[in-house]
Amino acid sequence: MKKILFVGLGVLAVAAAGGVYWTMKPPAEPPVAGGPPTARLISNDQYHNAVSYIFGSDIAISVKFPPMARTDGLVALGAAQAQITNSALELYDQAAREIAAQVTSQAHRDYLLNCAPAQAPDEACAKNILARYGRLLFRRALTDVEMADFLAKTRESIAATGDFYAGIATGLSGLMISPQFIFLIEETEPDPKSSGKLRLAGSSVATRLSLLLWDAPPDDELLAAAENGELYTEKGIAAQVDRMLVSPRLEKGVRSFFTDMMIFEKFDTLTKDPVIYPAFTSKVAGDAMEETLLTLIDHLIVRNEDYRDIFTTRRTFINGDLGMIYRIPVQRPQAWQPYEFAPDSGRAGILTQLSFLSVYSHPGRSSPTIRGKGLREVFLCQIVPPPPPDVDFSGFEAAATTAKSMRERLEMHRTNPTCAGCHKITDPIGLSFENFDGSGAYRTTENGYEIDASGDLGGVEFKDAIGLGQAMHDDPSSASCVVNRLFDYGRGYKTQPDDYDWLHHLDQEFAESGYRLPALLKSIATSQAFYAVSPPIDQPVETADAAH
Amino acid sequence: MNTSISRRRLLRGTLGGCAISVGVPFLDCFLDGHGEALADGSPVPTRFGTWFWGLGMNKKIFVPKKTGPDFDLPEEIESLKPVQKHLNLFTNYRVLTDGRTNFCHTTGWIGLRCGTAPRTRGDLPKPSLDVLVSDAIGNGTRFRSLELAATGGIRDSYSFRSGDAINPPMNSATKFYQRVFGAEFQDPNNPNFKPDPRVMVRKSVLSAVKDQRDDLMKTLGTSDKARLDQYYTAIRELEGRLELQLQKPAPAEACVLPGAAPKELAEGEFAEVVKERHKAMTDLLVLAVACNQTRVINMVYSMSFANTVRTGFPQTHHLITHEEIEDHELGYQVQNSWYLRRAMEAWAYFVGAFANYREGNATLLDRMLIYAHSDQEYAKVHSIDGIPMFTAGTANGKLKTGLHIDGQGEPGTRVGYTVQKVLGMNPSSWGTDSMETNKEVSEILA
Hints:
Chain A is mainly alpha-helical. Helix content of chain A is about 50%, strand content about 5%. Chain B is built from 11 helices and 12 strands. The relative contact order of chain B is 0.22.
């Protein structure tokens, strides 16, 4: 029996305390050398999260920064290579000026600026403001030289405009266009505990940790811990991790991770043919993405349940627009509400939600090949080779005119040796989604013929997408994939063969936790491996001995 | 409602019922007596543009039978008739891979735009041609270059210094209007110029940003140093542009100001929407060039894996190229050709927009060189031999136009090399390995 429970999204408070995480590190963490420090370009989300925390959520940003290249499965890894072109810098400049103007506006200045000029120009007040926001923006206190430079420009601006607040806006916008803000540059220092080795500076430990858990620069408390040297100790890190895991900001961090892992930028350009799928509007596309994110947050954070169950759970969230395609009556169509698909609905798990089904389809029809490829690449971290350039489509053309079903159309993929190599790893999975058309709507027939949605994954056979979801649940690769992606996402670079022992160890910890995501986050965030660092390429190592 | 802004409509003084301001042309006072040079004797600058469409052509109905002047216009390009005299069409040029993989829908356009075939999927081995050109001629205007994506996609740009430094496109005409003609636009023909102290302040603070360079650099590895170098290059570029804003802009005799921002169009890549978006962007681009805001422009009509959609059809254009059977009687893919005809109509509109805009005793197009190309010859089989290319404009009289050139299997880089020579860049050669050339397409040189 389908049952709709109406609840506001406010109930999605993060429930994390109560001893559900590791309280002690398991022994025998395999050693990891770590890669060179990174200098990631701040992402669009990280920029927004930073501004929202530092200046308040009512500060509007009209700019959307250029997307970065997806590298080795994650945009987060592309960030460590992304450059700022002349055109792109213009956008960072525009955003910085927009924000600074709002912060110093009459509407905000009284509560955002921690002093008012006693008499213009009040240099002590200006310095106070720059020190406060400079520390949060640069993720460390401004150096004396930085302070002197930006204070001088603030002073010049006050003199040129005759307006104290215009001068402050100039100083703030200068901070916000500085590379110290828009590049998340990691700093290293000699490791006093290990001669000849480097360690991340405390402020960089704080940044790496905060990006992993919140997808945002460190907050005041984390920066203070870095400044006090607390992040050089396991105890100090663990205390901060515990605090951050129960913060409401964890939800944004987890959303960002899955948005990246699941390639949700595909929704930026997702459109469906309005004649073929009239109910699938651009709003539905956005709602479909949100449905999956709500499901993940509810399942993994609020309920703290087994990660593998995301492939089998019938719980989801819907609204009126999604109800049109799911063919579910929704009592309050404007609101999101939890919903549980009926056992005979044909749906279970996020792979049977509209997000996956519609993104991995054509504008006007389903695509087993694209769905199979998407599943393997996103959820199993496998690479499906691209098609060869000289494909002979003649067999496919013939099938296109006579085939009764998609399965028959794709028969050529299986029988043609050129195609079979790759398509045998995509099509048997993708065909199990054939009960869903290109918009994600459920169907039992195609062209009047009953759909055969059977398939197999690694030798495990199933009769439909629900069976595939169970196979994904049971496949160790799906859990290993999220472990690997999360570790790469947090460090900002791809794991190397030297890291495999550590990843195996992390897989085991994940399993022992019952595949709980918060536990996995804690395992990573409190590990030595996560912060291990080697010298920058071409930079000599200044040893602790030499430093003294 | 028609939201496009033609110069004629502007001069009639109406645009959607809104009052508009029309810059009164300064006409010949800025040019020499012949309208062929600026009053100070310097030549009228040549502007450069690129135009890209995806998925090539149906050779049978695209490639003219006749070469040279007065070539025939087969049905897939018959929409080019009004602008044929302004174009050169290049067919039968090759992209040579030297044994590297022909990556579907990428090797071809990268070869023609970078002069080098990629080594891996996603590899952009050299800066795109327009970036080389903008390095040479892009200084001295407010924007080094302007990139537009008629697809509406925020990633759809073929202008880049490297794979990690892609120039982001403007993906809506409304945003494009705001960027170029918004609050920071300075009318070059406004006689009452006053430097804005806010701009002075903006420029000044950038020096504080630069002051930290050495301290930051010493902690970085080689590749991150290069990335920061690129950042500081962009900062210097921004400084230069702000410096320009502090000086009275050179008059632009043909500059006409658009009245109001065009309305946002629907999202998506339905062919009808792409057509409208392309038209609205082109209309503004013409004014941006006429108002001397940039000398380099880049327009993407459709991407190489074109996702253009035709209402009521289940597949994208890309999928159609692979799945559609050639019509046995006609001998080509009819559905695929429908999309390619829409692309050629858009190309004709683009060229015509510049050709119909007067600047002194010439047209904007007379003072431009636009380079257009696709990614495949025949998309169905990913052929990269014979990818069609065009040029439009005479580049201030340096090129002949109205010609169809058969490349006879020569590297396609010859066209890009000719572009650079004509623009005065004088490279000794362009391209690498078998794509390297130091031979211009002499047939089109005036």
